[in-house]
Amino acid sequence: MISCHISKVATIAPRRGPISAGLKAQLAEGLPRAAVRRFSDCGLMTHALLHQLGLGESEPLISASSFAESCSLEEFIDSFPTPSPARFQRSVHPSAVQQARVSNAEPLRTYIPMAGLDGLAITAIRCALSMDEDSVVLIGVEECGTWAIDVEAASDTAFAFAIRLSRAVSQNDSMGTISWDSDADGSETDCSLPTLFKHLHEHTPLHMSHPDMGSITLRWNN
User: Fold this and answer.
1) What predicted TM-score, i.e. pTM, was given to this entire model?
2) Model confidence over 49-103: pLDDT tens digits?
3) Which residues share a beta bridge with 190?
4) ∠168-49-5 over CA atoms, to 5°?
5) Residue 125, SS3?
6) Which residues 6+ apart lie within 8 Å of 153 measured at CB?
7) Residue 106: CB atoms within 10 Å
8) Running along the chain, 222 residues long, what does each successive block of 10 average in pLDDT?
9) Crossing angle for the helix pair 193-202 and 120-129, nearest 10 degrees?
10) How far are the Cα atoms of 31, 39, 137, 192 from residue 110, in angstroms, in the given order?
Protein backbone atom coordinates (compact mmCIF):
# COMPACT_ATOMS: atom_id res chain seq x y z
CA MET A 1 0.00 0.00 0.00
CA ILE A 2 1.14 3.54 -0.80
CA SER A 3 -0.32 6.48 1.13
CA CYS A 4 0.10 10.23 1.18
CA HIS A 5 -1.34 13.22 3.01
CA ILE A 6 -3.62 15.69 1.26
CA SER A 7 -2.37 19.19 2.04
CA LYS A 8 -4.70 21.18 -0.22
CA VAL A 9 -7.82 20.67 -2.35
CA ALA A 10 -9.42 23.05 -4.84
CA THR A 11 -12.52 22.36 -6.91
CA ILE A 12 -14.71 24.11 -9.45
CA ALA A 13 -18.38 23.28 -8.99
CA PRO A 14 -20.08 21.10 -11.62
CA ARG A 15 -22.30 22.75 -14.20
CA ARG A 16 -23.97 22.11 -17.53
CA GLY A 17 -23.32 24.18 -20.64
CA PRO A 18 -20.57 26.65 -21.57
CA ILE A 19 -18.77 28.91 -19.12
CA SER A 20 -20.64 32.17 -18.52
CA ALA A 21 -18.95 35.52 -19.03
CA GLY A 22 -18.94 36.18 -15.29
CA LEU A 23 -17.37 32.84 -14.42
CA LYS A 24 -14.85 33.19 -17.24
CA ALA A 25 -13.69 36.49 -15.76
CA GLN A 26 -13.22 34.84 -12.36
CA LEU A 27 -11.32 31.89 -13.78
CA ALA A 28 -9.08 34.16 -15.87
CA GLU A 29 -7.71 36.07 -12.87
CA GLY A 30 -3.95 36.49 -13.27
CA LEU A 31 -3.96 35.92 -17.04
CA PRO A 32 -3.01 38.50 -19.69
CA ARG A 33 -6.31 39.79 -21.05
CA ALA A 34 -5.30 39.20 -24.67
CA ALA A 35 -4.62 35.52 -23.95
CA VAL A 36 -8.02 34.62 -22.51
CA ARG A 37 -9.80 34.38 -25.86
CA ARG A 38 -7.44 31.57 -26.89
CA PHE A 39 -8.27 29.43 -23.87
CA SER A 40 -10.55 26.43 -23.91
CA ASP A 41 -12.89 25.83 -20.97
CA CYS A 42 -10.47 23.12 -19.79
CA GLY A 43 -7.60 25.59 -20.05
CA LEU A 44 -9.37 28.26 -18.00
CA MET A 45 -10.36 25.83 -15.24
CA THR A 46 -6.85 24.39 -15.16
CA HIS A 47 -5.33 27.86 -14.88
CA ALA A 48 -7.68 28.80 -12.04
CA LEU A 49 -6.84 25.67 -10.05
CA LEU A 50 -3.07 25.93 -10.54
CA HIS A 51 -3.22 29.67 -9.74
CA GLN A 52 -5.02 28.84 -6.50
CA LEU A 53 -2.58 26.11 -5.50
CA GLY A 54 0.52 28.05 -6.56
CA LEU A 55 2.21 25.25 -8.50
CA GLY A 56 6.00 25.40 -8.35
CA GLU A 57 8.32 24.76 -11.29
CA SER A 58 9.82 21.61 -9.77
CA GLU A 59 6.54 20.23 -8.42
CA PRO A 60 5.32 17.33 -10.62
CA LEU A 61 1.92 17.82 -12.20
CA ILE A 62 -0.35 14.97 -13.27
CA SER A 63 -3.51 15.80 -15.21
CA ALA A 64 -6.41 13.46 -15.89
CA SER A 65 -9.30 13.88 -18.30
CA SER A 66 -11.56 11.49 -20.15
CA PHE A 67 -12.40 13.89 -22.98
CA ALA A 68 -10.07 16.92 -22.62
CA GLU A 69 -10.84 19.72 -25.12
CA SER A 70 -13.99 18.09 -26.49
CA CYS A 71 -15.49 21.47 -27.44
CA SER A 72 -12.47 22.13 -29.67
CA LEU A 73 -13.07 18.76 -31.30
CA GLU A 74 -16.71 19.69 -31.91
CA GLU A 75 -15.67 23.05 -33.36
CA PHE A 76 -13.07 21.43 -35.60
CA ILE A 77 -15.59 18.96 -37.04
CA ASP A 78 -18.20 21.70 -37.42
CA SER A 79 -15.70 23.79 -39.42
CA PHE A 80 -15.70 21.38 -42.38
CA PRO A 81 -15.43 21.69 -45.37
CA THR A 82 -12.84 24.34 -44.43
CA PRO A 83 -11.35 22.81 -41.26
CA SER A 84 -9.47 25.02 -38.85
CA PRO A 85 -5.84 23.94 -38.19
CA ALA A 86 -5.83 25.75 -34.83
CA ARG A 87 -8.93 23.91 -33.61
CA PHE A 88 -7.50 20.64 -34.86
CA GLN A 89 -4.26 21.13 -32.92
CA ARG A 90 -6.06 21.87 -29.67
CA SER A 91 -8.48 18.99 -30.13
CA VAL A 92 -5.89 16.21 -30.47
CA HIS A 93 -3.47 16.77 -27.59
CA PRO A 94 -3.77 17.71 -23.88
CA SER A 95 -3.29 21.46 -24.17
CA ALA A 96 -5.07 22.71 -21.03
CA VAL A 97 -1.91 22.72 -18.91
CA GLN A 98 0.07 24.17 -21.81
CA GLN A 99 -2.41 27.03 -22.10
CA ALA A 100 -2.22 27.70 -18.36
CA ARG A 101 1.58 27.68 -18.09
CA VAL A 102 2.70 29.24 -21.37
CA SER A 103 0.54 32.38 -21.09
CA ASN A 104 2.40 33.48 -17.96
CA ALA A 105 5.77 32.02 -19.02
CA GLU A 106 5.73 29.54 -16.14
CA PRO A 107 7.99 26.52 -16.79
CA LEU A 108 7.12 23.05 -15.59
CA ARG A 109 9.72 20.35 -15.08
CA THR A 110 7.49 17.25 -14.85
CA TYR A 111 4.09 16.93 -16.53
CA ILE A 112 2.21 13.65 -16.99
CA PRO A 113 -1.11 13.80 -18.91
CA MET A 114 -3.48 10.86 -18.54
CA ALA A 115 -6.72 9.91 -20.30
CA GLY A 116 -9.29 7.15 -20.09
CA LEU A 117 -12.78 6.28 -18.92
CA ASP A 118 -13.50 3.68 -16.24
CA GLY A 119 -10.48 3.22 -14.00
CA LEU A 120 -8.94 6.62 -14.76
CA ALA A 121 -9.32 7.80 -11.16
CA ILE A 122 -7.39 4.84 -9.76
CA THR A 123 -4.70 5.07 -12.45
CA ALA A 124 -4.16 8.79 -11.83
CA ILE A 125 -4.00 8.43 -8.05
CA ARG A 126 -1.60 5.49 -8.35
CA CYS A 127 0.66 7.54 -10.62
CA ALA A 128 0.66 10.51 -8.23
CA LEU A 129 1.45 8.33 -5.23
CA SER A 130 4.31 6.65 -7.10
CA MET A 131 6.26 9.88 -7.63
CA ASP A 132 9.42 10.29 -5.55
CA GLU A 133 9.00 14.00 -4.83
CA ASP A 134 7.70 15.21 -1.45
CA SER A 135 4.89 17.18 -3.11
CA VAL A 136 2.82 16.29 -6.18
CA VAL A 137 -0.25 17.96 -7.70
CA LEU A 138 -3.00 16.00 -9.42
CA ILE A 139 -5.69 17.76 -11.42
CA GLY A 140 -8.79 16.41 -13.12
CA VAL A 141 -10.85 18.46 -15.56
CA GLU A 142 -13.74 18.03 -17.98
CA GLU A 143 -15.57 20.59 -20.07
CA CYS A 144 -19.22 20.22 -21.07
CA GLY A 145 -19.77 19.26 -24.70
CA THR A 146 -22.83 19.66 -26.92
CA TRP A 147 -23.61 17.21 -29.72
CA ALA A 148 -20.55 15.06 -28.90
CA ILE A 149 -22.26 13.98 -25.68
CA ASP A 150 -24.68 11.86 -27.74
CA VAL A 151 -21.81 9.94 -29.34
CA GLU A 152 -19.99 9.52 -26.01
CA ALA A 153 -17.13 11.79 -27.04
CA ALA A 154 -17.73 14.52 -24.45
CA SER A 155 -18.81 14.96 -20.85
CA ASP A 156 -22.32 16.16 -20.09
CA THR A 157 -20.98 18.07 -17.06
CA ALA A 158 -18.06 20.44 -16.60
CA PHE A 159 -16.00 20.15 -13.42
CA ALA A 160 -12.44 20.42 -12.20
CA PHE A 161 -10.39 19.54 -9.15
CA ALA A 162 -6.82 19.80 -7.93
CA ILE A 163 -5.20 18.09 -4.95
CA ARG A 164 -1.72 18.51 -3.54
CA LEU A 165 -0.29 15.32 -2.07
CA SER A 166 2.50 15.94 0.41
CA ARG A 167 4.78 13.70 2.41
CA ALA A 168 6.25 16.67 4.27
CA VAL A 169 3.16 17.50 6.36
CA SER A 170 2.05 15.74 9.52
CA GLN A 171 -1.23 13.95 10.04
CA ASN A 172 -2.47 16.83 12.21
CA ASP A 173 -1.71 19.42 9.52
CA SER A 174 -3.21 17.50 6.60
CA MET A 175 -6.76 17.59 5.31
CA GLY A 176 -6.84 13.82 4.94
CA THR A 177 -5.06 10.88 3.34
CA ILE A 178 -5.37 8.95 0.12
CA SER A 179 -3.91 5.50 -0.48
CA TRP A 180 -3.57 2.92 -3.22
CA ASP A 181 -3.46 -0.82 -2.64
CA SER A 182 -2.47 -3.23 -5.39
CA ASP A 183 -4.87 -5.81 -3.99
CA ALA A 184 -8.48 -5.10 -4.90
CA ASP A 185 -11.14 -6.19 -2.45
CA GLY A 186 -12.86 -8.43 -4.99
CA SER A 187 -15.53 -5.93 -5.97
CA GLU A 188 -15.67 -3.53 -8.91
CA THR A 189 -16.99 -0.05 -8.20
CA ASP A 190 -17.37 3.12 -10.27
CA CYS A 191 -13.75 4.22 -10.79
CA SER A 192 -14.44 7.19 -13.04
CA LEU A 193 -13.10 10.73 -12.72
CA PRO A 194 -16.54 12.27 -11.96
CA THR A 195 -16.89 9.98 -8.93
CA LEU A 196 -13.49 11.03 -7.57
CA PHE A 197 -14.39 14.68 -8.18
CA LYS A 198 -17.70 14.32 -6.31
CA HIS A 199 -16.00 13.06 -3.15
CA LEU A 200 -13.24 15.66 -3.32
CA HIS A 201 -15.76 18.45 -3.87
CA GLU A 202 -18.02 17.29 -1.03
CA HIS A 203 -15.19 16.16 1.29
CA THR A 204 -16.73 12.73 1.74
CA PRO A 205 -14.83 9.43 2.18
CA LEU A 206 -14.38 7.15 -0.80
CA HIS A 207 -13.30 3.61 -1.58
CA MET A 208 -12.81 2.54 -5.20
CA SER A 209 -11.84 -0.92 -6.34
CA HIS A 210 -11.02 -2.46 -9.71
CA PRO A 211 -9.93 -6.09 -10.22
CA ASP A 212 -7.10 -5.06 -12.58
CA MET A 213 -6.03 -1.76 -11.00
CA GLY A 214 -6.28 -2.28 -7.26
CA SER A 215 -8.14 0.09 -4.97
CA ILE A 216 -7.89 3.59 -3.57
CA THR A 217 -9.20 4.88 -0.26
CA LEU A 218 -9.85 8.54 0.55
CA ARG A 219 -10.21 9.60 4.19
CA TRP A 220 -10.76 13.07 5.64
CA ASN A 221 -9.53 14.24 9.01
CA ASN A 222 -12.72 16.14 9.83
Assistant:
1) 0.88
2) 998 888 888 899 999 999 988 888 888 888 888 887 766 766 555 678 888 777 7
3) none
4) 25
5) helix
6) 67, 70, 73, 145
7) 13
8) 92 88 83 78 90 87 91 86 74 72 79 88 94 92 92 92 88 87 73 93 93 90 84
9) 70
10) 22, 22, 11, 24
